[in-house]
Structures are given as structure tokens and as C-alpha cells.
Design brief:
Length: 333
């Protein structure tokens, strides 16, 4: 019997309308377009304003509508919804449930996972395992964040980086030699102090003190995270190429998490992959955490061909990181 692979059969994405430019940000904190462009590579990021909508499920619904407009499916046939996010609408109920209710995926069991910027590749692994088990035929994997809800706009070390956005993919089984081939996922939880959002959890429940201490915002030691991100993504990409006997020339696309253009360039350089094979859209959207990789797939969908060898790689809080190797499943429509 042929091996079952889980293949992406459709991609959707959505970014909110409001563009927060470097120029506008420079009127909020002491920074400049020149510094942000040179040190991070971002020109603008999208922000979900209350007048447009609220909650990451708002973005997810739009992303699913976008997917459905290109690749129609019956929402009632979706068996599970896995939503990777660090900025759910609420602590409970989960945002997968809210999204499913609003898009008619009412036969699905739904849950969120939190793996920060690596959320998409972790969620993809879960979806892939469901499909390969033979028990499920249609899994919706969603990944995105509304980081503007947890960004400290008085902290110039973090606020230029983050934006809002969401992507989704539909996973289905195939016996063809396409789909998710391999993944290497890693975690090191020994040093949460380097990158965290401490407020509102069970250690620091919301209080006047947590608000006064800015505990409800993301904080990071940028230089430590920068170094670990490059080392970790390179290490897992090299390992996955090696164990799948995949030469660098055979790689069609690298899809890295979009945290900093200098990180992306450094990963590409160390992997010896030309930058025209690397999906980069950080200048338009900034770092949307779990959203960056599916948003890249959405942006590049019309350039992807069946059989393309694609490496996804991410690094984020936890620390979480990894690399996924997939063969694209369809030609541009
Ligand atoms: O997605 C999750 C994973 N996150 C990441 O991968 C982020 C990794 N880290 C980074 O991308 C970078 O470390 C940052 C973008 C956060 C910071 O860039 P950097 O080049 O590492 O800057 P730095 O923290 O070393 O700061 C250099 C200088 C400092 O000034 P002094 O001390 O040299 O006088 C900062 O105060 O740049 C200053 N600076 C700024 N200046 C203008 C820091 N932020 C700004 C700013 N505008 N926004």
C-alpha cells in the first residue's frame, strides 16, 4: 500500500488594513525609518484597529474566506481546527472554536496551541500526524497573531518589530509523492527570561501591579534571541537537508520566520542558498509571530509549483524552533 502524506491543498491569508509606517512610529517613540530599515528591514506593519475588527479570530475568519474563494471546500467536512497563536481572543474559549463557529466548521473539534513564532510548524506537525494516522481527511491549520495587543508602544526595542496577520492551510491526504515529508522540532524552556510575556498567566494574574510593570507586553533580550535564532534555524535546516539527501540546489524555496531581515540574510548565507530562493516580506508586515510562514505561502502561492521542495523554518519564544520539509502539492490556478 502506498504511504499516505498530508498535503497542503489550499492557502489563505489576511492582514488588517491599517498600515503603521516607520514614519508614524517615529512620532510615537524615539526611533527613525533609517534605523528600523537598516537594523530590522521593516518599512511598515499592519495593525488591527477596533474600527475594523477585534481578536485574532477576526483575522482567521478572513483568511479562511480567502482560502475558500480559491479552493472551495465544505466547512462541515473539516474534522479538526488547530490554531497556533500567542494572542488568542480570550484565555478561554479557544480561538479555533470561535473561528470554526463563524465559518461553519461546526463538525470539527477545535483547539489552540501556543508555540510563539514556531506555532505554524508545530501546528502543521499535529495536522500532518492526524492525516497520516488515516483517521482524518480534512484538517484546517491556522496560525496568526494580533501582536499589537501585547506590544509596548513606549519600548523602542520591541515596538518596531511586531505586526498583526494570519494565515491558514487546508491539509488533506494523498498517496502521491508530495506533501509534508519530514520535520525537526525542538524546544528549550530553560531560559524564559530572554523572551516572554509574563502578565495574565497563573504566575502573574492580571493586577494593578502587572499593568504598572508592563507585564502584559512582550519583552525580549534582542541580542541573545538574535544569535539563538540564527544558530537554531541553520542547525535544523542543515539537519533536515542532510537526512533527506536534499542538496541545496534542489531546494526551491526557504520560508523563514520573518523576525529580522538580518536574521533571514544570515540564515540564507550560512545555508549557502541565494536570497532569490528565500521568501521575504518582512518589509510589508513585520513580525506577525505564528503568522509569518503561512502569510509567506499565501503571498507566494501563485509562484509555487507541484513538486517544489520547500523548507519552512522558525524560531520563537520558549525557545521553540525547527524546520519542516514539504513538497508543494499543486500548480498555480
Ligand atoms: O520573533 C521572535 C524572535 N525575535 C527575534 O528574532 C528578534 C531578535 N532580535 C532582533 O531582531 C534585534 O536584536 C533587535 C531588532 C531587537 C534590536 O536590534 P539590535 O541591532 O540588536 O540593536 P541593539 O539592541 O543591540 O541596540 C543597538 C542600539 C542601542 O543603542 P546604544 O546602546 O548602542 O546607544 C539601542 O538603544 O540601538 C538602539 N536602539 C534603537 N535606536 C533607534 C534600539 N532600538 C532602537 C530603535 N530606534 N527602535
Amino acid at each position: 500500500m502506498s504511504k499516505i502524506h498530508a498535503v497542503i491543498t489550499g492557502v489563505g491569508g489576511y492582514v488588517p488594513n491599517y498600515r503603521l509606517t516607520n514614519e508614524e512610529l517615529s512620532t510615537i517613540v524615539e526611533t527613525s525609518d533609517e534605523w528600523i530599515t537598516k537594523r530590522i528591514g521593516i518599512k511598515e506593519r499592519r495593525i488591527l484597529k477596533p474600527e475594523e475588527g477585534s481578536g485574532v479570530s477576526y483575522l482567521a475568519v478572513k483568511a479562511i474566506e480567502n482560502l475558500k474563494s480559491k479552493h472551495d471546500f465544505d466547512p462541515l467536512e473539516i474534522e479538526a481546527v488547530v490554531f497556533a497563536t500567542s494572542t488568542p481572543d480570550y484565555l478561554l474559549p479557544n480561538s479555533a472554536a470561535l473561528t470554526a463557529a463563524k465559518t461553519g466548521m461546526t463538525n470539527a473539534f477545535c483547539f489552540d496551541i501556543e508555540a510563539a513564532c514556531s506555532g505554524f510548524i508545530y501546528a502543521l506537525e499535529i495536522g500532518e500526524t492526524f492525516i497520516v494516522s488515516g483517521k482524518y481527511k480534512k484538517i484546517m491549520v491556522i496560525a496568526g497573531d494580533v501582536l499589537s495587543a501585547v506590544t509596548d508602544y513606549t519600548d523602542r526595542n520591541t515596538c518596531p518589530i511586531f505586526g498583526d496577520g494570519c494565515g491558514c492551510v487546508l491539509l488533506e491526504p494523498t498517496t502521491e509523492e508530495v506533501g509534508i515529508i519530514d520535520s525537526i522540532l525542538r524546544t528549550d524552556g530553560a531560559n524564559p527570561e530572554h523572551l516572554h510575556l509574563y502578565g495574565g498567566g497563573s504566575v502573574h494574574p492580571a493586577s494593578h501591579e502587572t499593568v504598572d510593570n508592563h507585564f502584559h507586553y512582550i519583552w525580549q533580550d534582542g541580542r541573545i534571541v538574535f544569535k539563538r535564532a540564527i544558530e537554531s534555524m541553520v542547525e535544523t535546516c542543515e539537519e533536515i537537508l542532510k537526512r533527506n539527501h536534499l542538496s541545496k540546489d534542489a531546494v526551491s524555496w526557504i520560508v523563514p520566520h520573518q523576525a529580522n531581515l538580518r536574521i533571514i540574510d544570515s540564515v540564507a548565507h550560512r545555508l549557502d542558498v541565494p536570497t532569490d530562493k528565500v521568501m521575504i516580506n518582512i518589509e510589508k508586515y513585520g513580525n506577525t509571530s505564528a503568522g509569518t510562514i503561512p502569510i509567506c505561502l499565501w503571498d507566494w502561492e501563485s509562484q509555487l509549483h507541484k513538486g517544489d521542495n520547500i523548507i519552512l523554518t522558525a524560531f520563537g519564544a520558549g525557545f521553540t524552533w525547527g524546520a519542516t520539509y514539504l513538497k508543494w502539492g499543486y500548480n498555480p490556478k
